[in-house]
Amino acid sequence: MLGYHTVYGTIQAQGQIDEIGGNVVYLNQKHRVNWGASLARSPYIAGGYQQFTDANGQHNQLVVFRYFDNSAYGIAQYPFSRVRRVEFSAGARRITQDVKIQEWLYDDTGAHYNESKQSLGEWNLGEATAAMVYDNAIDGYTSPIVGQRYRFEVAPTVGSLQFTSLTGDYRRYFLLRPLTLAFRGMHYGRYGRDEAVPSAVFLGYPYLIRGYSYGSVTDGCLNELSQGVDAGQECRVYQSLYGSRVAVGNLELRFPLIRNTLHGNVQLPPVELFAFADAGAAYGKLRDNQGGFATTHLKFTRGPGDVDSNGLVADRGFLTSGGLGARINLFGYLIAEGVFVNAFDRPKNWHWQFSFQPGF
Question: Read out DSSP for 157-216?
């Protein structure tokens, strides 16, 4: 927009009015030093249904945990070349958490409805970031095909919480016509006094490691508990997916099955096939349900580790998976991914997993 001036934004609408989020970013690229600002509100909503009976009657509850991340930042970028630059930002951030409970109580007099909300804490923060960024990768229709990317970032946080976030993300793409061999090594972690206070970092997102999705692992753990299995494999995996730090490695061999071509009068969407191997570990400090803190340690072994006398998987190995998959570019709007994955450290083994994401 307007040549050197760029404005873009997103809207995230869900649930109630106060759960609407989004962001807007302005960037001025007229001079060598690019500068701008951003405003963002990111809601994270999760919940579940529970039912129990006590002396008052039968309770049916919908429990919704809400996490709101609001921020305002100034941005500056200095490019050394077309592929390398440094980035800086500084600003304020406010995080609030609450839980909403909608309850239906059934007793001898009939049905009664009640709704309540309780704050789970709030933090007012000052933040800054400094990052070195390199990117000469060439993107295909569903993922990069050649080149390399990296980002090394330091982000101190002060105010209600004090910690420093470190990010190291390196990606390399080797073109072996018509194949691409892609590699990524990544670390993200919070270090310092309050590293365990914000929500724990979750390892099981499909853009980190595949085969360990939250719902699937949670269901497996609950099934073990219902059968009286204490500290079973799925429950140990569930614990091992959370920490204040993660280390991830990914390898993919990609083959472009269909490029953006016309077949008669029909334009075929680009499709990419790939084989992959993922490995990752989550570790660091964690906050337990009683408000205390526990420390876990990274071990260069495979698997979730064993439960100690406190019921904690304190020694964390790498969780691994591998399989085959396909990505399709849906008319340039989004990229869908389906994989047939073997989660090597779970009893579930081979299963399907679907997500919307480009290749790393």
Answer: EEESS-EEEEEEEEEEEEEETTEEEEEEEEEEEEESTTTTSSPPEES-STTT-SS--HHH
pLDDT for 28-51, tens place per residue? 988 899 999 999 998 888 777 778
What is the dotted CATH code of the domain comprising 136-360? 2.40.160.50
Distance CA 137, CA 141 (A): 13
Residues of the chain below pLDDT 50: none
At residue 189, the pLDDT reads 97
Q: Rounded mean pLDDT of the chain?
A: 91
Taking the model in full, what pTM does it have?
0.83
Domain boundaries, the chain: 136-360
Q: Which two tokens stand for residue 221?
A: 């753990």
Residue 167 to residue 189: CA distance in whole angstroms: 7
b/e per residue, 139-163, with b = 16+ CB within 10 A?
ebbbbbbbbbbbbebebebeebbeb
Count of other CB atoms within 10 angstroms of residue 335: 20
Q: How far apart are CA 242 and CA 285, in angstroms?
A: 9
